Amino acid sequence: MIEPTSGVRYLLCRPQGGLNDTLVQLELCRRHAARFGRTLIVDLTQSGLRAHFDDVFIPRPNFGAPVIAHGPEIARELDQCASVRPALLAGRISTFVSDWDPGADSYVERESRQPIGFDPECDHPETLLVHDQCGGGRRGFRILDRLMLAPELANTVAARLIPLGADYDAIHVRHTDMSTDYERLFQRCRGLFAGRPLLVCSDSTTVKACAREVFEGSAILSAADIPDVAGRPLHITELTDPRKTTIDLFCDLIAIARSRTFVFTAVMGKAGARPRFSGYSVLAELLHQNPSTIRGLFGAADPDLSAALFKSRSRRFAVPSLGRFLARLDQWRWNLPARHHAARLRFKTRIDVLRSR
């Protein structure tokens, strides 16, 4: 029950964008709510997850702020709040519509074209703050240490990942709204993945079909069954069921993070521009570097499934062939921007851990 006149202050977080953007915006709002004593209300229906918060996540004790899952009844109660930032949303929380404005580089309220947000670095007097935005980065990883997957989702993901085992490599290719020269990437990786079980994660069925041809000597694995989405990113397509998409996103993400060797590369941009990386690839790389975070996500899973998923890996590794060893070294030449980015992520994450102690 929301009581806008009770003295409790609220922050409505309505993330837009894909999975990493959703987590980044959620962490931004969580930090503000924890810092300034607000109750966080989370609406994931506009995000790529298109789901009810309680169906995806459970806050852990260290979340830092009270959390309420948004719904139609909550929205109607928030309509009674007169003190709102942005003020034009007062009385319209249940009905306002947001649109992406390329000129403003943000989501705006459809009628007024005013951005829907607030300065997260300072406190505000209004009873209700509304944040309806997208935007990526590495901040999305941080909130995963404060969340668990909801039991049903955790069990479904675990059951799908257990058959993969623990000894495989992974490659991620974004090829819908962001494009990748995947044919060149696959050719570069042939020596690295030769004879190895290979998990191919992509939002493109064309990419997966190409991988089966190029890596014909490898067992091609898959953790998600993503259909042909006609070149549209998963977080905005209407060709998939929202619940199925959520399961597939987390299956691929966690399967990548549990792989022995993970390769991603920059997506294509304008000539001369700095290399860009899919936020999903960055999130997967951060999880790959931090296996304890993965285990924490399954804190609400069935204990038997969790035990089967995280059973001890063998510490005995076969000595890599000379060809595979040289291929791993060669990746620092042809895939330097991605390897350098991964090294930077590792360094910055360690600094964050030291600062938090």
Strand and helix map with partners:
Blueprint: E1 10-13, H1 19-36, E2 39-42, H2 53-56, E3 57-59, E4 67-69, H3 72-78, E5 84-85, E6 98-101, E7 106-109, E8 128-131, H4 139-143, E9 147-149, H5 151-161, E10 169-173, H6 182-193, E11 198-202, H7 205-214, E12 220-221, H8 242-257, E13 262-263, H9 279-289, H10 291-297, H11 303-309, H12 322-334, H13 336-356
Parallel strand pairs: 1-2, 1-8, 2-4, 5-8, 10-11, 10-13, 11-12
Antiparallel strand pairs: 3-9, 6-7
Short descriptors:
357 residues; globular; 13 strands; 13 helices; 13% strand; alpha/beta; Rossmann fold; 4-stranded parallel beta sheet; 5-stranded parallel beta sheet
Describe this entry's structure for a reader.
The structure is a single chain. By secondary structure, the protein is of the alpha/beta class. The protein contains 13 helices and 13 strands. It has 2 domains: 10-137, Rossmann fold; 150-356, no CATH class. Strands 4-2-1-8-5 form a 5-stranded parallel sheet, with helices on one face.
Query: Helical proportion?
Result: 25-40%
What fraction strand?
Answer: 5-15%
What strand order characterises the main sheet?
4-2-1-8-5
| Anisotropy-based shape | globular
Q: Specify Rg, calculated over alpha carbons.
A: 21 Å
Structural class: alpha/beta
Tally of helical runs? 13
Number of spatially distinct domains: 2
Question: What oligomeric state best describes the polypeptide chains here?
Answer: single chain
Order of helices and strands: EHEHEEHEEEEHEHEHEHEHEHHHHH
Question: Residue-averaged pLDDT, rounded?
Answer: 91
